[in-house]
Amino acid sequence: MAGYIIGVLQGFTDAAAFTAYQTAAGPTVAQYGGKLVLNSRKVEQGDGNWAPVGIVIVEFASAAQAKQWYNSPEYQAVIGQRLQSAESAVIIVDGD
Fold this sequence. Notes:
Blueprint: E1 3-12, H1 15-31, E2 35-40, E3 54-60, H2 63-70, H3 73-76, H4 79-85, E4 86-94
Helix pairs in contact: 1-4
């Protein structure tokens, strides 16, 4: 069953550096078999107090594969760029 990485962007501290992060992180996703399903900053709040400014969903063959990508040396080499340039969070979801 598929596994997903869901990233939530709350805001930027450095938009140019975040764009550089996206450029660096993209090839690591492909390297581990991930497929970008959604990357949008067109987010409209429905209810509650959750109001992200961007959402990313990446599909992998399994949750184990998603975890392998997230913990990979290639992604870990660039994750600091995301953490320093944006208020963001990532979850791993098992599609089973």
